[in-house]
Write a structure and sequence with these properties.
Number of strands: 10
Number of helices: 8
Bound molecules: S-adenosylmethionine
CATH architecture of the largest domain: 3-Layer(aba) Sandwich
Largest sheet: 5 strands, parallel
Structural class: alpha/beta
CATH topology of the largest domain: Cobalt-precorrin-4 Transmethylase, domain 1
Distance between the termini: 49 Å
Strand order of the largest sheet: 3-2-4-1-5
Length: 227
């Protein structure tokens, strides 16, 4: 049964610059009955910055299975509930999928606000084709990693990868090794923050360039598809 009032709102939050929160996100965070958060301390700081006092409750990969039925029941009873991950759009390499799927299955209304995410600005500013692309998110940490990359070596669309600073060099090295030194890449670093930077070039050029830059912060890697 679809409730008249209740709804789940997925609320994207800034990936660096707090000014990137939208007016509608602020209004909703203020007016919903409850904000569920991947990390209540993290989202609590954002709400405090925005002067919002809505009740917060944790909802993350370690308690989502226990909590999901209760959340759905509350929405069916008419509550409006927002969900925020730590940064960017929930469900995009972040928790959120399980909750959305359960709501859809229970015919509970779901809305995701348009808003911050790291992959769109990285792709669009990379200078690589953005008419057709694949979002790969994080590569498998160990098992299946090389196989995944080998499968992607023949992909013709632009590819998007998320990576932590600790694995960036290794991943770049693997990508260039399997995709070839002529393939174009872009590393988008610290988007919307003080040290935002784009490092662009062929695999061979990138190997030279990354020796000279600070590999601290957050990164998105964009790889050209096979010609
Ligand atoms: N939900 C987020 C989104 O919508 O983009 C992604 C969360 S995922 C746990 C974190 C990864 O996103 C980082 O390791 C990095 O690859 C990317 N990322 C997040 N913020 C970024 C930023 N400001 N600059 C570059 N990459 C960022």
């Amino acid at each position: 049964m679809i409730s008249e009032e209740g709804k789940l709102y997925l609320i994207p939050t800034p990936i660096g610059n707090l000014g990137d929160i939208t007016f509608r996100a602020v209004e909703l965070l203020r007016s919903v009955d409850l904000v569920l958060a991947e990390d209540t301390r993290h989202t609590g700081k954002l709400l405090q910055h925005l002067g919002i006092e809505t009740r917060l409750s944790s909802f993350h990969q370690h308690n989502e299975h226990q909590k999901v039925d209760g959340v759905i029941r509350r929405i069916q009873e008419g509550a409006s509930i927002a969900y925020c991950s730590d940064a960017g759009t929930p469900g995009i390499s972040d928790p959120g999928f399980l909750l959305v799927r359960a709501c859809v299955e229970a015919e509970v209304r779901v809305e995701c606000l348009p808003g911050p995410t790291a992959f769109v600005p990285s792709l669009v500013a990379s200078g690589l084709p953005c008419d057709r692309f694949v979002f790969e998110g994080f590569l498998p940490p160990k098992k299946g990693r090389t196989r995944r990359l080998e499968e992607l070596a023949n992909e013709t669309r632009t590819m998007i990868f998320y990576e932590s600073p600790y694995k960036l060099l290794k991943t770049i090295d693997q990508l260039i090794g399997l995709f070839g030194e002529d393939r174009q890449f872009c590393i988008a670093r610290e988007l919307s923050k003080l040290h935002e930077e784009f490092i662009r070039g062929s695999g061979a050029e990138l190997r030279m360039k990354i020796q000279k830059v600070t590999l601290k912060g957050e990164f998105v890697i964009i790889a050209e598809g096979k010609k």
